[in-house]
UniProtKB/TrEMBL annotation:
Name of the molecule in the record: Transporter
Catalyses which reaction(s): L-isoleucine(in) + Na(+)(in) = L-isoleucine(out) + Na(+)(out); L-leucine(in) + Na(+)(in) = L-leucine(out) + Na(+)(out); L-valine(in) + Na(+)(in) = L-valine(out) + Na(+)(out); L-glutamine(in) + Na(+)(in) = L-glutamine(out) + Na(+)(out)
NCBIfam families: Na_transp
Residues that hold Na(+) according to the record: 76, 79, 83, 341, 470, 474
Protein family membership: Belongs to the sodium:neurotransmitter symporter (SNF) (TC 2.A.22) family. SLC6A15 subfamily.
SUPFAM superfamilies recorded: SNF-like
Any one Gene Ontology BP term: neurotransmitter transport
Principal location: membrane
Membrane spanning residue stretches: 70-88, 100-121, 142-169, 226-247, 259-282, 302-323, 335-356, 458-483, 495-513, 533-550, 571-594, 614-639
Length: 729
């Protein structure tokens, strides 16, 4: 960032000193209480600072050890489980390779501009989400509180998924893997395969019965699952220990948790490409279906995925960027992290469908072998004539091409009788078209594929360790989105708050490790974040573009970055992004209204899933989750609009509120660096206490330590409103 000239510095210092003199000359001599409690000239011994060299004041706010550590933290937060088990599913469902085009367009229109906006406000104001939105518009300060509530809701169930991954990780150190075969049940007379497993599959049975021991409905609690309770406790202990020192502790872990998933994904891709059928899976994945791309649902789901993939609205992006230097090029960071996220999703899609292609090939070979035996039996029984079978076909080692040839011949010859033969076409595309996502992909489809890998325990260990690391990276950002704003606002000790937060979340999270816990995870995933986060980001966009002022914000960015951002962002933030977000919100509300609220329950007797509607109390919980998440926004607005709470306490929220009322047109400084201001600026104050460091004139060269919420200190504020009562300070 360019340094200010001596002339600018001298003029600014003269103006500030004059405002302080005006204040002192206008003081009421009888107002001793004001002098003693609020206006104290504090001359302290400071390190000699050469203004010409522009050396910076030591900032008490923690900072990243390196730019790489910060980028890894943002990548770790944005790249999560959704990249592995949501994006591939959407890509397959919405037109294969053609889905990438709407996704890229929406990444440029919604993703990068809004990600850049959050990075900018966090870096500029150097506060968590509560402090940032209080600073920009105190009446919209509830945005920060809403972000914290949503982060807490998401953290509750997201760590449960990490717990599931830990359980599977712990069970992977055995050969064969425990979900490789159906268990046998013994009774007095004979041994037989577990009926529930026989009706489904080994991996499906293991997931629902051995891991979750799931109940048949959300109303049937079934008590705690002690295995998952222990795993959830371990997950929260790991998160607590990693976050207890803030970025000093979590930042070092990022080197492993953010990079390790890429190592695993690349290893999986190389291994899968060496297996039969992997190319079929990739070809199926990226075959574009252009007609599907024009459907509105495809664009809605692409916009939703872009929105959540970057972690917009959670507050984690703002929290991480608040530990940056003021002159960091956050525009470069926004573009870099967004495209890393996109290419990670594409890499994960390649891996998933290469592995699923191999799995489909294995299943298809079994299908062909079983149906070939049926054809041989039908020929022996005389149902099918031997003459129609081509002479070159050898059923003892039949290929897929030969089988399909025989199948087509039989279908034509036995046109009317064909359905009664119960022969299967055994097409690999039919298996690949079985779209799976979420836990169904990770804990059922992928685990089944790995049982066919050579050295399957090794690959299982690697896969679930990758899931744990992907989850932890996102959890660090989510918890940071809770801890940083509260620490900045209420000045509590980070270590104590982290322990309390994790302990409380574990206790509440016990509802997710009941036998019915999986249904609550589905409920929270569907209702606690989607609509509230959309509303939060819309309000963020409005607060910056229309309340704070897009022109003023662009000037701030020019001041902070040292160059003016492209006008593209001006039009995106002011016109395009708000309209796109409102359209997405309306589409999401309509889709939620048209989709019956419910969940897929596992029915033990049928050994299959069945869609059930939520009971009345479940609907109340769903609505309550959405209302509680967005409730802080209107509550804070009403409180501040009507002055329902005395703001004379010294906390950040009240101070920024008074800043918003008094300082109507703040002067924009060309670079708030140490060559101009030796004290801490408003966004860098470690504790906004009145009574000390309100302003300071040192010997040598006059310098200014600004007030917590104004660039020029309390003298400038009072000069604007000399009759402001003492409580308004």
């Amino acid at each position: 960032m360019p340094k200010n000239s001596k002339v600018v510095k001298r003029e600014l210092d003269d103006e500030v000193i004059e405002s302080v003199k005006d204040l002192l000359s206008n003081e009421d001599s009888a107002d001793d209480a004001f002098k003693k409690s609020e206006l104290i000239v504090d001359v302290q011994e400071e390190k000699d600072t050469d203004a010409e060299e522009g050396s910076e004041v030591e900032d008490e706010r923690p900072a990243w050890n390196s730019k790489l550590q910060y980028i890894l933290a943002q990548v770790g937060f944005s790249v999560g489980l959704g990249n592995v088990w949501r994006f591939p599913y959407l890509c397959q469902k919405n037109g294969g390779g053609a889905y990438l085009l709407p996704y890229l367009i929406l990444l440029l229109v919604i993703g990068i501009p809004l990600f850049f906006l959050e990075l900018s406000v966090g870096q500029r104001i150097r506060r968590g989400s509560i402090g940032v939105w209080n600073y920009i518009s105190p009446k919209l300060g509830g945005i920060g509180f809403a972000s914290c509530v949503v982060c807490f809701f998401v953290a509750l169930y997201y760590n449960v998924i990490i717990g599931w991954s830990l359980f599977y990780f712990s069970q992977s150190f055995q050969q064969p893997l425990p979900w490789d075969q159906c268990p046998l049940v013994k009774n007095a007379s004979h041994t037989f395969v577990e009926p529930e497993c026989e009706k489904s599959s080994a991996t499906t049975y293991y997931w629902y019965r051995e891991a979750l021991n799931i109940s048949s409905s959300i109303s049937e609690s079934g008590g705690l699952n002690w295995k998952m309770t222990i795993c959830l406790l371990v997950a929260w202990v790991v998160v607590c220990l990693a976050m207890i020192k803030g970025i000093q502790s979590s930042g070092k872990i990022m080197y492993f948790s953010s990079l390790f998933p890429y190592v695993v994904l690349i290893c999986f891709l190389i291994r899968a490409l060496l297996l039969n059928g992997s190319i079929d899976g990739i070809r199926h994945m990226f075959t574009p279906k252009l007609e599907i791309m024009l459907e509105p649902k495809v664009w809605r789901e692409a916009a939703t995925q872009v929105f959540f993939a970057l972690g917009l609205g959670f507050g984690g992006v703002i929290a991480f960027s608040s530990y940056n230097k003021r002159d960091n090029n956050c525009h470069f960071d926004a573009v870099l992290v967004s495209f890393i996220n996109f290419f990670t999703s594409v890499l994960a899609t390649l891996v998933v469908f290469a592995v699923l292609g191999f799995k489909a090939n294995v299943i298809n070979e079994k299908c062909i072998a079983e149906n070939s035996e049926m054809i041989i039996k039908l020929v022996k029984m005389g149902n099918i004539s031997q003459d129609i079978i081509p002479h070159h076909v050898n059923f003892s080692a039949v290929t897929a091409e030969d089988y399909h040839l025989v199948y087509d011949i039989i279908q034509k010859v036995k046109e009317e009788e064909f359905p009664a033969l119960h022969l299967n076409a055994c097409q690999i595309e039919d298996e690949l078209n079985k779209a799976v996502q979420g836990t169904g992909l990770a804990f059922i489809a992928f685990t089944e594929a790995m049982t066919h890998f050579p050295a399957s325990p090794f690959w299982s260990v690697m896969f679930f360790l990758m899931l744990v690391n992907l989850g932890l990276g996102s959890m660090f950002g989510t918890i940071e989105g809770i801890i940083t704003p509260i620490v900045d606002t209420f000045k509590v000790r980070k270590e104590i708050l982290t322990v309390i937060c994790c302990l409380l979340a574990f206790c509440i999270g016990l509802i997710f490790v009941q036998r019915s816990g999986n249904y609550f995870v589905t409920m929270f995933d569907d209702y606690s974040a989607t609509l509230p986060l959309l509303i939060v980001v819309i309000l963020e966009n409005i607060a910056v573009s229309f309340v704070y002022g897009i022109d003023k914000f662009m000037e701030d960015l020019k001041d902070m970055l040292g160059f003016a951002p492209n006008r593209y962002y001006y039009y995106m933030w002011k016109y395009i992004s708000p309209l796109m977000l409102l359209s997405l919100l309306i589409a999401s509300v309509v889709n939620m209204g048209l989709s019956p609220p419910g969940y897929n329950a596992w029915i033990e007797d049928k050994a299959s899933e069945e869609f059930l509607s939520y009971p009345t109390w479940g609907m109340v919980v769903c609505i309550s989750l959405m209302v509680l998440a967005i409730l802080p926004v209107p509550v804070v607005f009403i409180i501040r609009r009507c002055n329902l709470i005395d703001d004379s306490s010294g906390n950040l929220a009240s101070v920024t509120y008074k800043r918003g009322r008094v300082l109507k047109d703040p002067v924009n400084l060309e670079g708030d660096d140490a060559s101009l201001i030796h004290g801490k600026i408003s966004s860098e104050m470690s504790s906004p206490n009145f009574g000390k460091n309100i302003y300071r004139k040192q010997s040598g060269s006059p310098t200014l330590d600004t007030a917590p919420n104004g660039r020029y200190g309390i003298g400038y504020l009072m000069a604007d409103m000399p009759d402001m009562p003492e409580s308004d300070l």
